[in-house]
Specification:
The protein is built from two helices and twelve strands; from the N terminus they run H-E-E-E-E-E-E-E-E-E-H-E-E-E. With 159 residues, the chain is mainly beta. Strands 1, 2, 3, 4, 9, 10, 11 and 12 form an eight-stranded antiparallel sheet that branches. A four-stranded antiparallel sheet has the order 7-6-5-8, with no helix packed on it. The longest helix is centred in the first third of the chain and has 16 residues.
């Protein structure tokens, strides 16, 4: 009985730790595609905050009834600048293997306030993100996207 009870507790804990989110739009391509189903770890940030490059689900700042998915590129206290499509964090080049450079882009500099994150989509020309509506307040984050689970041909670990 103890084994069965332990298994039941593990399953219930798993259901309360993860939820499913469905991606709408192309802002995170090629990492995540429109229609992908993701498992989101809703407890990921209970002990420590988001890390650079985490893919997060959060309330869209201009309409909190909608959820957005973006990648964390800037942390509280850092200064972000985009020059010729390259992201500079506190003056140092951010290495982004998941993103092709859009050479004409210029932005900033902007310093991220405490309790906020600078987020961007991987598909920069087709992403509404912190460049348009500013840093995201951390209490609006729902969790970290962990896995693409559907369709199976896209299945992958994200973070």
């Amino acid at each position: 009985w103890m084994l069965l009870g332990g298994l039941l507790i593990s399953v219930l804990y798993g259901f309360s730790t993860f939820r499913v989110a469905v991606v709408e739009g192309a802002s995170m391509q090629p990492t995540v595609r429109d229609g992908d189903y993701l498992l989101v770890d809703v407890r990921a940030y209970q002990r420590q905050g988001p890390a650079r490059f985490d893919v997060i689900i959060f309330d869209y700042p201009n309409d909190p009834r909608r959820e957005f998915i973006k990648r964390v590129v800037g942390l509280p206290g850092e200064t972000i600048r985009i020059h010729r499509g390259l992201i500079l964090v506190d003056g140092r080049l951010l290495q982004e293997p998941y993103h092709p450079v859009v050479e004409s882009e210029e932005y900033g500099p902007v310093t991220i306030p405490p309790g906020h994150l600078f987020v961007m989509g991987d598909n920069r020309p087709h992403s509404s993100d912190s460049r348009l509506w500013g840093p995201v307040v951390t209490w609006r984050i729902h969790g970290r996207a962990q896995w693409i689970v559907w369709p199976l041909r896209n299945a992958a670990v994200l973070s």
